[in-house]
Amino acid sequence: MAAKEKPMNFQPYHETRERDKLNNLIASMSVNGWLGGPIVVDGEQAITGSHRLAAARSVNKRWEANEDVQRVEVETVGIDELFTMAGLDFSATSEAAPEGIDYYLWLVNALPYSIREEYGIDLH
After folding, report:
1. 13: which DSSP letter?
2. DSSP alpha helix (H) spans, the chain
3. 79: domain CATH number?
4. What whole-number distance in Å separates Cα of residue 102 and Cα of residue 122?
5. Which domain holds residue 18?
């Protein structure tokens, strides 16, 4: 089960790249709150959801300013939990990551396609 966290605690994997996507998420979250799957995290590192994270932060700034929006809590799941769901050893896979490659890309590619699809993990 996904945990709910404050969106300010997580560092996005990359900057937001699609302005329209971000604006649509802000509009949706302002009315509907959090929709969709959880963000995959490793500690305070968000591996997925850079746009959703930025949108939640934007909505929460408006909430703090007493605007008529609801506070958004970000749903998360640990990447280690996904490895457990898949019956894989997270520690062994993590330690086997070769130097000079993107660590999170290595981990994500070690997960079965079905889990990557279910949690919307699309690193490239």
Report:
1. S
2. 19-32, 50-64, 79-86, 90-95, 103-110, 113-118
3. 3.90.1530
4. 13
5. 3-118
Give the pLDDT mean for 101-119.
Answer: 92
Classify residue 68: in a domain, yes or no: yes
> Does residue 106 fall inside a structural domain?
yes
Place of tokens 């998360």: 76
Give the number of domains in the chain.
1
**CA atoms of 12 and 2, how far apart (whole Å):** 18
Residue 112: is its pLDDT beyond 80? Answer: yes
Output the CA–CA distances (angstroms, integers) from residue 112 to 30, 57, 101, in the order listed.
Answer: 34, 31, 19
pLDDT digits (tens, 9 = 90+) for 19-32: 999 999 999 999 99
Structure-token pair, residue 121: 């993990």
The angle, 0 to 180 degrees and rounded to 10, between the axes of the packed helices 79-86 and 103-110 is 30
Q: How far apart are CA 35 and CA 52, in angstroms?
A: 10
Q: How far apart are the first and last CA of the chain?
A: 26
DSSP annotation of 47 reads S
Could you tell me the pTM of the whole model?
0.81
